[in-house]
Write a structure and sequence with these properties.
- This protein is mainly beta.
- The protein folds into 2 domains: 113 residues, Immunoglobulin-like, CATH 2.60.40.740; 113 residues, Sandwich (Immunoglobulin-like).
- 6% of the residues lie in helices and 48% in strands.
- It is found in: Secreted.
Amino acid sequence: TQDDIDLGHKDNTAAVKVQTPENTVITASDEHSEPLPQNAGIKLIKEGQFQDTDGIAEEGEMIDYTFTVTNTGNVTLDSVMLTDNMVTGLTQDVDDVVGNNDSLLEVGEVWGYTGSYTITQADINAGQKENTATVTADDPFDTEVSGEGDATVILRGIILEKTGEYQEDGDGAVEGGETISYTFNVTNTTKVSLVNVEVTDDDPLINPIFDSGDTNMDDILDPGETWVYTGSYAITQEDIDAGEKENTATVTVEGPGGDTVSASDSHITVILSADIGDFVWFDFNGNGVQEFGESGVEGVTVELFS
């Protein structure tokens, strides 16, 4: 049982009793202690998320951290202590992530903690915040085990700028199937290199494709680089009726420590605009374009009502 493993051995006694033909009872016994291997282990995972609202890191903004502590060994641990000299408000979750809330970190149990850190100008200048947390615990014989977890949180982030231009085919009429051409500019405003750049759009019909900007062609978004993506969208009658097309793009990248940073940008493309001119004609086919055989009409007064 787990109690046996925590003790490190299993003790038990065997006994034998026999009776002779003269009805004499003879007994014998033997004790044995079987050692049980113990392997105490503990693992700490630390993750941080920069709480930014405007894409610009500013002194006093916060990084929120989560800590996950797991008993990876085969014995019960107690006296669990999590420390991080940079994080304030370090608090254990009320309920175990995995466990029975008995204050013992049993085999396979997972405990969660949270805390926060207020960034400084020095952090902003560095472009990232890196620090390490430590967890310690005691095994059943009060031998200490420990684990470390570090997190690198990117500051200042990335900037995504999305633009769109309606491409009218030249016949003067807005028609379904005409396109909007999109450009997505992704700029690394940090001081660290970013990888696994992915640009997506909330409209699944728009598929941003890398166009240019990776100056040294290393598939790494270096500090200060701007990568350009392009995409297109065929307008529908619903878009024409609305007079515009609004959608949002998102870019996600991965920093040196594996942390993910994202940014989004929305754009409204005006599809339909109308001008009132000074010429009236018989538009027999109703396409809005004066064509051969569609003569002008004199003496017409046009009144607009709001």
